[in-house]
Amino acid sequence: MATQEKVATSLEELHNSGYEIAGGQPDITGWDIITRSGKKAGDVDDLLFDPDTNKVRYIIADLDKNELDLDEERMVLIPIGLAELYTKSKAAHRRRQVDPAFSAYNPGEHGNLVYIPTISAQQLDSLPLYEKGRLSRHTEIAIRKILEPANRSEHEEDEFYRHDHFNEDRFYDRED
User: Fold this and answer.
1) Among 57, 92, 131, 153, whose CB has the most other CB atoms within 10 angstroms?
2) pLDDT on residue 152
3) Among residues 127, 141, 144, 123, which one has the least CA distance to residue 6?
């Protein structure tokens, strides 16, 4: 008899949930997701949020039409704290301090994109497939292990979303 993985049902896709994006924040659905090299990793399909806390936990990334030679028929989850939001309205005002080793692409010059400077193509390719309604804590832990350095310590179960990967401030209101 096969064991079934417990599916966490607390996170929901934002669109068609009855919830709305917080006032003053853009709807990033359809925006390009860009890597440190300036190549497109995919598009934002939706956001996955916790209705109990009203916090976004993941970007649902559609890897279709990526420029990284990844399998294009996949949706994956990117923790919100690993992404940076750039809008056209802020692009003119924001001058990002860029380490010369990584100065090939400056997202602040473009705007209306989601920038993932610390995620490699190999990591994106290793992320588990996202299937609506099938997200388990096991899958979330796998995502976290793929995206964090190997020397990180284990997490406490009730502290899971306090990790930097889920820090919304890094996404929405970054000041450079």
Assistant:
1) 57
2) 56
3) 141
Whichever domain contains 92, its CATH number is: 3.90.50.10
Residues 27-37 pLDDT 10s: 999 999 999 88
User: With contact defined as beta carbons under 8 Å apart, do 35 and 116 qualify?
Assistant: yes
* Residues in the chain, total: 176
Q: Please write the tens of the pLDDT for every residue from 85-126.
A: 988 765 444 455 655 555 567 787 877 999 999 999 999 999
The answer to whether 76 touches 63, Cβ cutoff 8 Å, is yes
| Pair type for strands 55-62 and 32-35 | unpaired
Cα 156 → chain centroid: 22
- The string over 109-119, giving b where at least 16 C-beta atoms fall within 10 Å of a residue's C-beta and e elsewhere, is eebbbbbbbeb
If one counts every other C-beta atom within 10 angstroms of the C-beta of residue 94, the result is 17
Name the pTM for this structure: 0.76
Residue 36 lies in domain: 12-17+26-149+159-172
Output the six-digit token pair for 79.
């923790």
